[in-house]
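Q: Hi! First time asking for a complex rather than a single chain. Here are the components, and I think there are four in total. Is that enough to go on?
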Amino acid sequence: MAHSVFKYRTGEAYPYCYKYPQVALTADCVVFSYDGKDLLVLLIKRGQEPFKDRWALPGGFVNPDETAEQGARRELLEETGLEASHLEQFKVFSTPDRDPRQRVVTVPFIALVNHKSVAGGDDAAEARWFPVDKVPPLAFDHDQILSEARTALRRSLYFSPVSFTLLPPQFTMPQLQRLYEIILGRKFDRRNFARKMNSLGVLDFQGIESVGNDVVERKDVPSRKPSIFSFNRVKWSRMKDESDTNFEF
Amino acid sequence: MAHSVFKYRTGEAYPYCYKYPQVALTADCVVFSYDGKDLLVLLIKRGQEPFKDRWALPGGFVNPDETAEQGARRELLEETGLEASHLEQFKVFSTPDRDPRQRVVTVPFIALVNHKSVAGGDDAAEARWFPVDKVPPLAFDHDQILSEARTALRRSLYFSPVSFTLLPPQFTMPQLQRLYEIILGRKFDRRNFARKMNSLGVLDFQGIESVGNDVVERKDVPSRKPSIFSFNRVKWSRMKDESDTNFEF
DNA sequence: TTCTAATTGTGTTCTTTTGACCCATTTTTT
DNA sequence: AAAAAATGGGTCAAAAGAACACAATTAGAA
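A: Yes, that's all I need. Here is the structure of the assembled complex.
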C-alpha cells in the first residue's frame, strides 16, 4: 500500500482521528467548452508536488459539510472563476494508490460552460484551454478520467441535447454539426444533419446576420453566409423529460 | 453537522489519524434478478442500529486496499453468497448526513445476477428478493439509490442488451419482452418486439422444448408452447463494442 | 466586371425501420 | 369436438435514415 495511515499519532499534525480507516474525498471537474471549432477542456498547472508543473483537472478536497457536487462547484469557482451551467457526475475513481500521498477517492464531474477565456484562480498558478485531442499527459489518473468523461458525454448527448449548453446564444448549423461530430466521433451528412436538427423543433431561426456572437465570426473565405439559430429552452427541457420516460430498445 | 470528528483523540478507540478530515467509504449493491415474471431486487434486513430491522441494500465498508468495485464484490459475496456477472457503477451519494453516525460516502453498483434463492450471509440476519415495485421503505437513502439505479439500468439497456445477464441460458421471447417492459417501463407490440430482437442477430433458436430451465415452466394455461432461445455471446459482445463507437444523435 | 473557389441551403429518391393490425397454429380445458 | 389462451408469421402504410444533385451566396482573383 502506497498511502499512509498513521496509527496512534496525535497532536496538531494529525488531528482527525477515526475508529476505522477513512479516505480523503476530492471532486474534480472535467470542464468542456467549445470555441466553434474545437472541443476544449480546461486544465490547470499544478504548483506543488506531486506532479508539480504537470497539467491536471481542476478540483480539490470536499469539505465536511459539502456534497461532492457542491465541492466541485466551489473548487471550480476558486480555481478558475467559472460557474458551470451543467454539472454531471459520471463515475468514481477509487484505486487505492491513485494518489501517492494517501488514499484519495475522487468524484469527477462533467462541467459544460460557454466558452470564455480564464485566468488562473487562487489555488492554481495557471489555467488554460486545450483541444481535447491535444491534451498533454496529465497528473495522477486524470488521463483516464478525461477519457471516461468523453464517453460519458457521448452518452449524455444521446439522451438530451446537452450540446446547447456548450454553444453561445447564437450559432450556425455547421458549428452545431461540428460539435456533434467531435463529441460523437463520427461524421454526418450536412443535409441530413440539418434536416434532423430542424425536425427536433428546438431550434429558432434568427436570420443570417450574427448579433454580438463570440463564436460566429466570418472568416475570410469566400462562401455563403450561414443562418443563425438559437435554441428554444422550453422545448429543449420538454425533450429532456421525455427522454427519461419514453425509452426504446 | 451530524457526523462526528474527534480531534486530538488517540489510543485504541480512534487509531486512524489524518491531517485533514476524511470520510468513510462504502460500496452498496443494487442486485437485480428476474424470475421470468418480476424484476427482483435483493435486500437484507439490518441487524443493528441505525435502522435496525429495516430492509437495506447489501453493502459495507471498502477496505484500504480495495477499489470500490472490489469492495462491492466482496461484500455481496459475504452477505449473500452471490457473485455478480455484471457490476456497474452509476453514481455516488455524498450528502453529508446521509448516515447519522458519521460521514459516509457510498458508491452503489448495479449488480445483475441469474436468479436463484439466497440465504442470509455472515453479516446479515436475513436476505430476500423483492419485486422492484413492492419494495418496503428502506434504510438510509437507499430508496433514492434504488430509484436512480433503475434509471441507470434503463440507460444501460439502451446501449447494450445487458438484459441477457438477467436471463437463464434458455428463455422465451415473451419472457424477454416482459423483462424489457419492466425495465423500460413501457409496453411493446408482441410481434414488433420479436421481429426487432431477431433482427439484432444475438438470439439463437433452440427449439420449443425447454431443457433444464429454471425459468421456462409451462403454466397450466391452454396455449401454444413458446420457442426457446439462447443468446449468442460473441455477437452480443461485438454489439457492445459497436455501441461505444457508433453513436447516433 | 466577370470568373472561380468555397461553403451553405433546398430538394429528390431509394432503402430501412417502425407501428398497427389480421389470421393461422398450437395446446389445455370443457 | 369446441372454446379459450397464448404464440408465430405476415402485410401494409407511415416515418426515419442514407445517399446524392444542384442552386445560391460570398470573397478574392483575373
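A: Residues 189, 191-192, 195-196, 199, 218, 220-225 of chain B lie near DNA strand C (CB under 10 Å from a C1'). Let me know if you'd like any chain examined more closely.
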